[in-house]
């Protein structure tokens, strides 16, 4: 009987502290997961955009190089 009284007294003193701490820890974990996911999404988007820019600049440089080479070859043929 004394054990039961002590248990009720502990439950009254605890007043849901453990549940609140558990909820708080779950909220922190969820927030961290969402933050990590958002960061990964942002960096993935930046990486993809950088690859697109790199591809466009490579295309431009290749096209410019081919046009310059053709122009120089044409001038060499005309002068010879």
Largest sheet: none
In whole angstroms, how far apart are the ends? 115 Å
Number of contiguous helices: 2
Shape: rod-shaped
State which percent range the strand residues make up.
under 5%
Please mark out the parts with pLDDT under 50 across 5 or more consecutive residues, or reply none: none
Write down the secondary-structure element order: HH
On the 0 to 100 scale, the average pLDDT is 83
- The number of distinct β-strands equals 0
Q: If you compute it from the alpha carbons, what radius of gyration comes out, rounded to the nearest whole angstrom?
A: 34 Å
Helix content: over 70%
Estimated structural class: mainly alpha
Summarize the structure in words.
Helices cover 95% and strands 0% of the residues. It contains two helices and no strands. It has 80 residues and is mostly helical.
List keywords for this structure.
2 helices, single chain, mainly alpha, 80 residues, rod-shaped
Describe this structure in a few short sentences.
With 80 residues, the protein is mainly alpha-helical.
List the helices and strands and how they pair.
Layout: H1 2-14, H2 17-79
């Amino acid at each position: 009987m004394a054990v039961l009284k002590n248990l009720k007294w502990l439950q009254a003193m605890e007043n849901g502290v453990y549940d609140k701490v558990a909820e708080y820890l779950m909220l922190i974990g969820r927030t961290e997961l969402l933050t990590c996911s958002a960061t990964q999404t942002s960096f993935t988007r930046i990486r993809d955009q950088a690859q697109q820019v790199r591809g466009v600049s490579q295309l431009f440089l290749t096209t410019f190089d081919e046009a310059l080479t053709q122009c120089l070859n044409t001038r060499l043929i005309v002068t010879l």
